[in-house]
Design brief:
Order of helices and strands: HEEEEHHHHHHHEEHEEEE
Strand order of the largest sheet: 5-7-10
Shape: globular
Mean pLDDT: 91
Number of domains: 3
Number of helices: 9
């Protein structure tokens, strides 16, 4: 597809997302659910206003946002970054459904966002298996820098990996780590009530998608269906 046409179609889809109604939360109007806005309190030339109350003013704001934010994006990565993290996977899903991007392009866009999105399980609109299928076709140089790729290539045939979870239900995730200490840190971070859990497992090199140490986490992205010898620490 012509890149200019592709970008225009992606902007049109983003505009559709822009007009999704705000969903109230327990903390509204300070906090709302919306693909672009975190709060119902927005700022225009007249000052701050509550978009959930002043509908006519909000409608004008949406037009201004479309023209001066969405339509000014110069590429797909820039456009995706405009959308709130919790909605980016859904946006990618709809770009795939509308045939705006190929699976390879989707994987590469996801690769750029991997560290930023962080908790992939929070998007109920996109299945974990779908996300895995996207990231598995991404170019390695989109997932890893030269140092990370060098370490990835030097991995033995079987690795010991660790995962820290808030609950036992989160065991089968794509993000594991080479560090037991870091896994325990994640277990404590996501713990609710009784505390988190830490697992140790094995994974074959051929089932590892990538290695990234962007935040010092020694993360390995794996095909979670292929982990074995799992034990709780």
């Amino acid at each position: 597809m012509n890149k200019e046409i592709q970008l225009q179609r992606a902007k049109s889809l983003a505009t559709t997302f822009l007009h999704i109604p705000m969903t109230s939360t327990a903390f509204s109007p300070v906090v709302v659910m919306h693909p672009f806005f975190e709060s119902a309190f927005l700022h225009d030339k007249q000052g701050i206003f509550n978009a959930q109350i002043e509908e006519a003013r909000y409608d004008k704001y949406l037009i201004h946002f479309r023209d001066n934010a969405i339509n000014k994006r110069e590429d797909l990565s820039d456009l995706l970054a405009l959308i709130r993290k919790s909605y980016r996977l859904t946006y990618l899903l709809y770009m795939m459904k509308e045939k705006i991007i190929t699976k390879k392009e989707c994987g590469n866009l996801l690769a750029e966002q991997w560290i930023i999105i962080e908790n992939l399980s929070t998007d109920t609109n996109v299945r974990k298996g779908t996300v895995l299928s996207w990231i598995m076709v991404a170019d390695k140089d989109k997932l890893m820098d030269k140092a990370e790729l060098k370490k990835y290539n030097a991995f033995p045939e079987v690795l010991t990996v660790y995962r820290g979870c808030g609950t036992t239900k989160a065991l089968k995730g794509m993000s594991w780590t080479l560090s037991e200490e870091k896994a325990r840190w994640f277990a404590d971070r996501f713990a609710t009530g009784r505390g988190g859990v830490t697992y140790r497992a094995k994974i074959k090199k051929e089932d590892i998608v990538a290695y990234t140490n962007n935040r010092g986490e020694q993360e390995v992205i794996v095909d979670y269906r292929k982990i074995f010898d799992v034990e709780r620490l």
